[in-house]
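Need a sequence for this fold. Nothing fancy.
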């Protein structure tokens, strides 16, 4: 079995545009838009799909509701969380938690996308061996 994608369900085609803009800005990955109600951002090994609730009603038996997530966190690993935070600027991003060092060493930034989904962007600490190699 191969884990293929995560899909975010949003309100309408304009909401798809808003989410695509957010995730493109965050990741630098452009989306494909085969139809106005659907988009995909293709990462190595995984796809982030975005569709309207109308598509879910039509093709997925209404199994998901737009902007209703309160239990999942999308996570992206980057080399340097602080550099990304500076590049994004905090004025147009809904920052739930600025870059913070976690007890296990990860440096983590929590954002909310335009639909309120929690996004954790983190970097792993350098290992002791890597630190000594520098």
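Here you go.
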């Amino acid at each position: 079995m191969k884990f293929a994608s995560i899909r975010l369900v949003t309100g309408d085609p304009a909401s798809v545009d808003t989410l695509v803009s957010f995730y493109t800005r965050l990741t630098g990955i452009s989306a494909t838009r085969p139809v106005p109600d659907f988009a995909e951002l293709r990462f190595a090994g995984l796809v982030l799909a975005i569709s309207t609730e109308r598509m879910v009603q039509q093709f997925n038996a209404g199994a998901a509701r737009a902007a209703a997530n309160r239990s999942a966190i999308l996570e992206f690993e980057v080399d340097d969380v602080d550099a990304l935070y500076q590049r994004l600027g905090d004025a147009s991003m809904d920052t739930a938690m600025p870059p913070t060092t976690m007890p296990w060493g990860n440096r983590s930034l929590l954002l909310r996308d335009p639909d309120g989904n929690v996004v954790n962007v983190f970097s792993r600490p350098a290992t002791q061996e890597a630190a000594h190699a520098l």
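For context: Confidence is low (pLDDT under 50) at residues 128-133.
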